[in-house]
Design a protein that fits this description.
It is a single chain. Strand 3 (about 75-80) and strand 4 (about 90-95) form a beta hairpin. About 25% of the residues lie in helices and about 35% in strands. The chain has helices at about 25-40, 45-50, 125-130, 140-145; strands at about 5-10, 55-65, 75-80, 90-95, 100-115. It has a single domain (about 5-145), classed as Hotdog Thioesterase (Thiol Ester Dehydrase, Chain A). With about 150 residues, it is an alpha+beta fold. The chain is globular, with a radius of gyration of 16 Å. The protein has four helices and five strands, in the order E-H-H-E-E-E-E-H-H.
């Protein structure tokens, strides 16, 4: 079970805006992509959600941009589940540049579990919530990075 999921990638040239750094829309896209990857690794692929007639929708994104990223830079995007409520789950993210050991952005998305046929919130089944280990303290993630993990 991946307590903290890590995806490393190189910022593509088409992610850069007119100001010469990564466009904020790209961060949101990367957050969605890494959440899907983490879920699939834990046994909850998009195909599984579709078979069960369920899925996740975003209620809220919050991103704190600390430093810019640029084309060609290698970044790690880490994500973890910060908790479960009856119908929702906050997921956190940290954008990390290993070359200078800098946090570029911190983010959180509040995901709502829904029945796709009605679009209405649905209770998160125990089978789903038990597939993820909760990480409540963001500092554990940063400490792990500074020690060369996760």
């Amino acid at each position: 079970m991946a307590r903290i999921f890590r995806h490393t990638f190189t910022v593509p040239a088409d992610a850069i805006d007119v100001q010469g750094h990564t466009n904020n829309v790209e961060y949101v896209r990367w957050m969605q992509d890494v959440a899907v990857r983490h879920s699939a690794e834990q046994g909850w692929s998009m195909e599984r959600y579709a078979r069960e007639g369920t899925g996740w929708v975003v209620r809220r994104h919050a991103i704190e941009y600390l430093l810019p990223s640029r084309a060609g830079e290698e970044l790690s995007l880490l994500t973890w589940v910060a908790g479960f409520r009856s119908h929702s789950s906050p997921r956190r993210y940290l954008f990390w540049r290993a070359s200078d050991r800098q946090v570029l952005a911190r983010a959180e998305t509040l995901w709502v579990f829904v029945d796709v046929s009605t679009g209405r919130p649905r209770s998160i089944p125990k089978e789903l919530s038990s597939a993820f280990e909760i990480v409540q303290n963001d500092e554990d993630v940063l400490e792990g990075l500074l020690q060369g993990m996760p």
